[in-house]
Write a structure and sequence with these properties.
The chain is about 45% helix and about 20% strand. It has helices spanning about 1-30, 80-100, 105-110, 120-125, 160-170, 200-215, 225, 235-240, 255-270, 290-310, and strands at about 35-45, 50-55, 70-75, 110-115, 130-135, 140, 175-180, 185-190, 220, 245-250. The chain has an eight-stranded mixed sheet, with helices on both faces. A two-stranded antiparallel ribbon has the order 5-6.
Length: about 325
């Protein structure tokens, strides 16, 4: 028993060290570039940990109107660890751009504020787990924890997803990228179970996706067509609820993080100057048969999980 206890402590130390690497990288970025990079957080998770990130802004650059706000968020799924390192890479690249007046993206990024949250699911990231546990110990998929117009799913079961949603609404986000792995795609709505997968803004999204993918040679298209449909995803919620131009970056297995970060930055420069006004999903187009089938499987898995936890008590 004593050996088991020691082993658990050692494992916990190794797991927590993974998130420490990200925090250390951000600390170096902020300490060495305090005029551009500042600490920020979106609130706490169910374990009481602060979900931290950095705010990237060229504060000395003045614009006639309010600056545009963007969000880059990684690691909804904790086992997709490269997504966190991509966020750090992108933050470092943006700081370099804002120090170089001759860079092609200097003016656009200087007229922007970019919030970077490398690790949303801290517990899953440390434990190399896709899911995240709520305060009662139940596991949930964070990227199935948002309101979905094609599913009456319960949502915001996790404090992390509730807090990132609150942050989005509070900061008037214009464009967002959520990072996952490992397929090698850069996709856009719709991703939900819908009969018509193309949004009213499909041509705009298609143009942006193709331009960005010239950099990293990824595939682009709608989430549902290129990857697979899913309920309660962050990217669909951002666009459907608020008209935020949102894309999902799925890193390749052997990703070139520098190229992928460049593609993300390109996205921020191509986003239209205002939110979409044609973003609402018409509920009549929902593919309810597949929604119910998917939901029943999820309900079954969650019920099995609760039973196992009860047996352990």
């Amino acid at each position: 028993m004593r050996h088991l206890f020691i082993a658990l402590i050692l494992c916990a130390s190794v797991w927590s060290a993974e998130y420490d690497k990200i925090i250390n990288s951000l600390t170096n970025l902020v300490d060495n570039n305090s005029e551009i990079a500042q600490w920020m957080d979106i609130g706490k998770n169910d374990q009481g940990q602060d979900i931290r990130g950095v705010k990237i802004e060229n504060a000395t650059f003045k614009v006639d109107e309010e600056k545009k706000n963007y969000l880059l968020v990684g690691t909804h799924h904790g086992n997709e660890r490269q997504s966190a390192y991509l966020c750090v890479e992108a933050a470092e690249q943006m700081v370099k751009i804002l120090k170089n007046r001759n860079h092609e993206h200097y003016a656009r990024l200087s007229a922007s504020v970019i919030y970077v949250v490398p690790v949303l699911n801290i517990g899953g990231f440390n434990a190399y787990s896709r899911a995240e546990r709520d305060k009662n110990g139940y596991s949930h998929d964070p990227n199935r924890d948002y309101p979905d117009p094609c599913d009456s799913n319960s949502y915001f079961k996790l404090m992390s997803t509730q807090n990132i949603a609150n942050f989005v609404e509070r900061n008037n986000i214009l464009g967002a990228v959520t990072v996952h792995g490992y397929i090698g795609t850069f996709t856009y709505p719709w991703g939900m179970y819908t009969k018509k997968t193309k949004t009213a803004d499909h041509k705009i999204y298609d143009m942006i996706g193709k331009e960005c993918c010239k950099i990293n040679n990824y595939r682009t298209g709608t989430h549902a067509d290129v990857i697979y449909p899913a309920t309660g995803a962050f990217e669909d919620w951002c666009y459907n609820a608020h008209g935020i131009w949102t894309m999902l970056l799925e890193l390749a297995h052997s990703a070139n993080l520098a190229k992928d970060a460049e593609a993300v930055i390109k996205f921020f420069t191509l986003v239209p100057g205002e939110r979409s006004k044609s973003h609402k999903h018409p509920g009549k187009n929902c593919n309810m048969v597949n929604v119910r089938s998917n939901r029943s499987r999820c309900d079954l898995l969650e019920e099995q999980q609760k039973q196992l936890l009860e047996q352990k008590k």
